[in-house]
Amino acid sequence: MDNPLASANKVALVTGAAVRVGREIALTLAKAGCDIVVHYRNSVKQAQEVANEIRAMGQKAECISADLTDSNAIDELFLKVLDRFGRLDILVNSAAVFARTPVGELDEADFDFHINMNLKAPYLCSIAAAKLMHDGGAIINIADVAAERPFKNHVPYCVSKAGLLMLTRGLAKGLAPAIRVNAVSPGTVLFRDDEDEAARNFVISRIPMGDVGTPKDIATAVRFLAIEATYVTGQILAVDGGRSLH
Known about the structure:
By secondary structure, this protein is an alpha/beta fold. The protein has a single domain (10-186, 215-237), classed as Rossmann fold. The protein is 43% helix and 16% strand. The chain has helices at 20-31, 44-56, 71-85, 108-130, 155-175, 197-205, 215-228; strands at 10-14, 34-40, 61-65, 90-93, 137-142, 179-186, 236-239. Strands 3-2-1-4-5-6-7 form a 7-stranded parallel sheet, with helices on both faces. Strand 1, helix 1 and strand 2 (34-40) form a beta-alpha-beta unit. The radius of gyration is 17 Å and the shape is globular. The model is unreliable at 1-5 (pLDDT under 50).
């Protein structure tokens, strides 16, 4: 059977598309024939660079800024998508925050910071996206191996990503059969700038495949779930080099 998402240009919104993993996802979906909404918050220069790369491929690209912790801004984001493209076929909830939060220093603000960005924003974006997916579509959430194997100094982050797994499964049931909802669960892909060599080597030692992944690894998995896996919904695809086996 022909793949309906691959047979014609589709419109994909990638949150956090200006930098890091989100950037690679946006470019990978563009290479697959999608027009892209490049969402960003503050990285306007990087967003414009991504959009220009996409246009050079012959695809349409629009940069739209929005603070995803503001529900009104999310509403405006999707109104702009509707105005500029008239439809939406793929949503990738990639934007996220990841802050070190030692247990002895936790406070309410740490919880709200991670939950609002990593769980509430994908929830609201998914609801808004579904209303624009007139011919069906796909929603891909970017989770984390930490959703099921918690890090002691990142409890609010881990909780937010664990919630994202249930959001994925719940929406997969609720939005079926027209809209598929899945998640990609990365292991370590990019180190933080404040991680020293010893910390990095420790992480690598716990990965069966012996190295960290790349943004391309994650983007390839997103493309598979968004475009190729038309009979897959409610699934969490680990792309972690085997780290979740520990």
